[in-house]
Amino acid sequence: MKVTGTLVICLWLVMAIAARADMDPILDTSGQPLSRGVEYLIKPAIANDGGNFTLVDRNGSCPYYVGQEDANSTGGIPVTFSPYMEDETVVMETRNFKIDFSGNLTCNQSTTWKIGDNDTMTESRLIVTGDNSTLQNYFYVHTGPEVLLNGSYGLRWCPSQLCPYCRFDCGYINVLIENGTRLLYLNDTSAFPIVFERLNIL
Ligand SMILES: *[C@@H]1O[C@H](CO)[C@@H](O)[C@H](O)[C@H]1NC(C)=O
Ligand SMILES: *[C@@H]1O[C@H](CO)[C@@H](O)[C@H](O)[C@H]1NC(C)=O
Ligand SMILES: *[C@@H]1O[C@H](CO)[C@@H](O)[C@H](O)[C@H]1NC(C)=O
Ligand SMILES: *[C@@H]1O[C@H](CO)[C@@H](O)[C@H](O)[C@H]1NC(C)=O
Ligand SMILES: *[C@@H]1O[C@H](CO)[C@@H](O)[C@H](O)[C@H]1NC(C)=O
Ligand SMILES: *[C@@H]1O[C@H](CO)[C@@H](O)[C@H](O)[C@H]1NC(C)=O
Ligand SMILES: *[C@@H]1O[C@H](CO)[C@@H](O)[C@H](O)[C@H]1NC(C)=O
Ligand SMILES: *[C@@H]1O[C@H](CO)[C@@H](O)[C@H](O)[C@H]1NC(C)=O
Ligand SMILES: *[C@@H]1O[C@H](CO)[C@@H](O)[C@H](O)[C@H]1NC(C)=O
Ligand SMILES: *[C@@H]1O[C@H](CO)[C@@H](O)[C@H](O)[C@H]1NC(C)=O
Question: Which SUPFAM superfamilies does the UniProt entry name for this protein (predicted)?
């Protein structure tokens, strides 16, 4: 009985360690793991598919939306990643984190990304800012056939690490164009392909 119990615990430990070892870190454009608190630009993986990710003033009022620069602009606002688990210093596949824009405080509100409610104009769930204390803040990096460029990274909203048995209407982050403005929104089937470029190389 005691031996069986120990065996079960051992097996469980081996499986837990194997699961951890299976997970890959997400890499930036220089091949280094994405690290907590470090600034990165999020850029399209495909040239001319819009520009760097930024805050978008959609309607002349706060809070701002999350979107993309035009393909030919030179802008973009860097982001930082905060993994949900306090002890995780790098971003791993399928692990939840929050994303914050660095340094644009025009709205005097949180610049943490979150999934908004169904927007009446676009009939989509857009990515907004303004609130950093909800399950709607938690994303992870996805790789797989849903990412519209084979072998590249996409983002997925799904806070399943925070609540493994909850049912969420999860989705991939894709880009829609409203009157020429590129906005991020939740798509059931496809993710916009991106890369992460580290800004301050130490
Ligand atoms: C994106 O950021 C890079 C800096 O890494 C800059 O050189 C480039 O012009 C920006 N591109 C766009 C389209 O905003
Ligand atoms: C912040 O972002 C908004 C929307 O893109 C822009 O209008 C504003 O100039 C930015 N402010 C700063 C300080 O970068
Ligand atoms: C734009 O702002 C106006 C006035 O604040 C508001 O009534 C309208 O719903 C907003 N539209 C969008 C698309 O957010
Ligand atoms: C970017 O520049 C190219 C070449 O100058 C032009 O064909 C294209 O329309 C421009 N794209 C945007 C979004 O302004
Ligand atoms: C920002 O908002 C906080 C409350 O949320 C307020 O106390 C503070 O005065 C505001 N700052 C500015 C510059 O408006
Ligand atoms: C959430 O946002 C508020 C307002 O910007 C900020 O004061 C607070 O430190 C943020 N909390 C976290 C955990 O990031
Ligand atoms: C948003 O609402 C519209 C109109 O009610 C509906 O057609 C659409 O399916 C909804 N979209 C989402 C993502 O819930
Ligand atoms: C993506 O790569 C996989 C494996 O290399 C391949 O089976 C699949 O057909 C590719 N899909 C596309 C759309 O290129
Ligand atoms: C986009 O354009 C349509 C048609 O011109 C207009 O009704 C709508 O208000 C515009 N949306 C925004 C957010 O500016
Ligand atoms: C999801 O993205 C795909 C590819 O960009 C597009 O064909 C499809 O219409 C999108 N679905 C929704 C509901 O926007």
Answer: STI-like (SSF50386)
Q: Could you identify the residue written with the tokens 């519209």?
A: 148
State pTM to two decimals.
Answer: 0.85
Ligand 2 contact, 26 CB (< 6 A): no
Could you tell me which residues are beta bridge partners of residue 42?
196
- Centre of ligand 6 from the C-alpha of residue 94, in Å: 24
Span 27-198: which CATH code? Answer: 2.80.10.50
Element (DSSP H or E) covering residue 83: strand 79-83
Are 107 and 58 in contact by the 8 Å Cβ rule? The answer is: no
Helix (H) or strand (E) holding 51, with range, is none
Closest approach atom of ligand 6 to CA 98: 14
Alpha carbon of 141 to those of 7, 20, 98, 158, 194: distances in Å? 35, 16, 11, 10, 10
Using 70 as the pLDDT threshold, list the residues of the chain that sit under it. Answer: 1-22, 201-202
> How far is it, in rounded angstroms, from Cα 173 to Cα 65?
13
Ligand 10: nearest atom to the Cα of 190 = 2
Whole-angstrom distance, CA of residue 87 vs CA of residue 90? 9
